[in-house]
Amino acid sequence: MERFQKKDDYVSPDLMKALQDYFQANVLWTYGWQSDKDKVPFSHWNHDFLRTPRTNQESSEHILLNHEAHGPIRDLWLQLKKDVLPDHSLVRCYANAHTFGIEGYPHVDSRTPGNYTTICYINPMWRPEWAGETVFLNDFGDIAHAILPKPGRITVFDGRIVHAARGLSRICPAMRVTLMFKTTALGATQDVQ
What's the predicted TM-score (pTM) here? Predict the structure, then answer.
């Protein structure tokens, strides 16, 4: 699998609407989640669907599949598993949210080969002037990719790539919402993070 890929319009309009309705009715955001507790003390909004530990490497797909209320998230996971992540196990699934003044900071999701992150952008709309890009840094610390949180877009990347959610502009009236699927590829070793 490639270390980084982006797919526009991956989530169908019907599934996107179902996800947005699900979030509106069911997600209770909590503040205090940190992307890297050891290096950056600042937090953002989060909702953890599977409640698995950060270092979990065991398949937790059954939690998602057996919880009927997670229907749209389950449907998206099954689509990803079929199309993009066929030999992957789902180990974590959660959502993050950022509002103006709450920035993300550079971090890695894993330090182990074979660990991947899929970000799904589920805002109903997004404008470039609102900022909020996900940036990916190269080995020299320069931005190699910048991805706007366009509705229905997904980004799949090697969890060892340094990345960050950039802050929203002050004119942004929305919450930037991302849905994450953390996976391990067949044969991945234990995470050392």
Answer: 0.91
Q: What is the pLDDT of residues 53-70, one digit of tens each?
A: 878 888 899 999 998 888
Contacts of 129 (CB under 8 A, 6+ apart): 169, 171
Look at the block and give the residue holding tokens 């993070």: 193
C-alpha 157 chain-centroid distance: 10
Q: Which residue has the tokens 């960050």?
A: 164
The stretches of the chain forming alpha helices (DSSP H) are 13-26, 61-65, 71-83
Q: What is the Cα–Cα distance from 15 to 31, expressed in whole angstroms?
A: 27
- Count other C-beta atoms under 10 Å from residue 22's C-beta: 16
Residues 152-181 have pLDDT tens digits of 999 999 999 999 999 999 999 999 999 999
Is the sign of the CA dihedral 30, 19, 177, 146 positive or negative?
positive
